[in-house]
Each structure stands twice: as structure tokens, then as C-alpha cells.
Amino acid sequence: MTRPQVVIIGSGFGGLFAAQALADAPVDVTLVSRTVSHLFQPLLYQVATGILSTGEIAPATRDILRKQANATVLLAEVNRINLASRVVVAEKLAKTIALKYDYLIVAAGAGQSYFGNDQFATFAPGMKTIDDALELRARIFGSLEMAELSEDAEERQRLLTFVIVGAGPTGVEMAGQIAELTQHTLRRSFRRIDTRDAKVLLLDGMDVVLPPFGAKLSAAAKTELERNGVEVRLGALVTDVDATGLEVKDKDGSTERIAASCKIWAAGVQASPLGRTLAEQSGAELDRAGRIMVNPDLTLPGHPEVFVVGDMISLDKLPGVAQVAIQGGRYAASKIRGELTGHPVTASFAYHDKGSMAVISRYGAVAKVGKLELSGFPAWFAWLFVHLIYVVGFKNRVTTLLHWLITFVGRARSERVTTEQQLVGRLAVKQLGEDFQPTIAGTLNPGKIKH
User: Is position 173 annotated as part of the catalytic site?
Assistant: First the structure.
């Protein structure tokens, strides 16, 4: 007798934790993802700034699930879902697969949002993937190297100006680490420039830093950023971005051009396009960020066999954080398990807020856990402990802790290798477009692809 088939889309927090929660359930699990790894996205900025290696925050999904006999991992990108026939269609390098399911968990996450100005991405990468982090690492360290070569004072200042757009946790953490790099870590590494002359700007259209943290912690975060040399400009809207800088409009209507070589976008998110696919077939509504409105039990309207979790859902104003995805994935798995074992879960999904944290500098952070608000070293220590728990694998926890000791105690950065491929790879792939996929497919599988 064929066991029920559960297809999970996405290997992030929601998808991985759902798969693990079904380890001893009477089902066969197929996890399909466009990447081969489980990405710990909250630590991407540490890859970009030379603290951690990619392997420490993105272990192979196959290794994580290797002991789970009922789980199969497939590398492919889902581009079609047919709710009526219960089929998921995915492709990778000109290879198409069709997966039939009895239950479907969609945990495809979200990408960067440029609020209708996608052309900005060419000059201001976001922070959502390993590719993004490696490209930004090349841009950050590359700007310093080019400044060392420059003989022109104006050009040198442009190369030493770093602009981060978005004062949420990612933007705040990135701004703090670039300031740490330029003010301390690298100040004796160059001979023709003084990295302490670098300018780090954090821009946001809102009036506060870290709005969800509340007024007290928001003010503490802004003070800590400025103490570490970050210029915080609030009420500033970015209206244009190009290769040499960006245009900013302030609340009073005045505009200013900021000359900057390295720009980083951390200002918004857009849910996976699969949300629109599901909405068109189920009749569910989408919000402005492309998130789909689900039932209280995370299922699609009219489709109790389809669960949507994580950054893709619009429900009770839940934040787009890892814990929502983790708890949602586990809840969806419990619903499936309960239905199959005769112990149905009737309660709606209830999110348990475990708090929010952002690290700003060495020993400086803010944390909000329920009514408890922490800043400074206590918040930093809490941040370190919590993030270490969720790093997957004992070896990764040990190496991550060692890297943190090197960075936070000695101010060194052990992951500073950059390549020209990291810098231009994303743009090259984009320019090659559709021709790129068949070319690589033909290389991996000669004779199968015809041009």
C-alpha cells in the first residue's frame, strides 16, 4: 500500500522543521528546494562582513536529513502548482519533474522588495541569499581596495562611503558591522588610506530605527549606532540608485545626491511568486507584499491539504521572522500527523513570540522578549546564546563560536576572501538570461541538450 505523499517546497526554517517533525510519521516526505542548503538567513550579514563562512550558516540539507529514512531531498525550483490535480512541477537545468502529493507544505519564503524599482537591485543588492552575501562581501572589501589605489580625493571619498537602505534588524546589523570593520578591524591594514575616514550611512523612510522594538530600544539602538560612527538619517526616501550613488528625498521635500560606491538594500521583502499562483487557484487574497491570506490553521481556503508557512503568509499581522516559520512548519506537520493517526489537531495556529534581537556592535545589542527589554552587553550575550542554539549541527556551532571569539574578542575577520566572480556573477547570469540554464545543463549532461 502506497503511503501518503507529503511535498514540502523550500529548505528554509519552515520547510526543514516541517520535514523533521514528520520523521516518524507514516508518510513519505519529498523536500524540493532551489538550493542545496538550509540557510540561516539572520546571519547572512556576518558572511558579507567576513565573520563567518557560508558553510557555517548554510549546511547541506541532505546532510541534515540523511538519517531520516522517509525524507527525500530534490534540487529544483518549483514553477507550477496545480491544486486541482495535486501536482507540483519543478525544473532544474532543463530537467522537469512532476511530484504528486496528498499533502503540500509551501515554505518558499520571501525575496527582497524594491517597491516597484527592481532596477535598483543592479547597484544595491539585497541580503536574502548566499549569492547576495558573497557579492556584498566583494563590494565592501573591493571598495576599500579601490580607494587604496585611487589618487583622486573625491573618488576616494565616494569609494569610502557605504550606504545601507533600511533601518530594520538587517540594516542595523550591517551598518554596525561595516562601521566596526572600518573603524577598528582594518585601520592598520592599509597604507594610503585611513579606513576611519569611511562614511557609513543608514537611511530609512520611517522616523525610528527598529520600529517593532519600541521607543526605548529604538532610541538605544540609534545611540549605539552613532557612538560607533554610523550616520543615521531617518525620514529619508531613496528615489533613485545608480552606479555612482543614490538620490534621497527628505520629509521636507528637499533632495540630495549621495556619492557612494557600495550600496546595500535592506528596506523591504516580497513574498515568493508562488503565493500568487496559489491565490489565483484558491481564491485567497494577497496583501501588498504578496503574502497570501490563509485560514487560522495555515491551510488555503478550500484546500485543507495545502499548508502555507513562514514569510509567505498573511495572518494576524505575524512578523516575517524565523520563529513564525519554525512554529508554522511544526504545526503543519502536527496537523498532517494527527489526521493520519486518528488524533486530529483542532486548535488554530498560535504563534508564541520568543522575542526580537539585533546586534549593533561588539558587545552592543538590543533585545525585546515579551515585556523584558535589554540593551548593551546583556542583550548581546542573549543574542549570541539564542543564535548559537539555532545554528544547525554541532560542528557548525563550534566553528561559529570560534569565529565569534576571534571577531568579538580580537576584532579580526577570518573570512575576507573575495573574487571577481562574486562581484559580477549575479549580473552575468542575469545578462545571459535563459541561455545560461541550457548551457550549464548541456555541460553536466552532454548529449541531452540541443541548441
Answer: yes
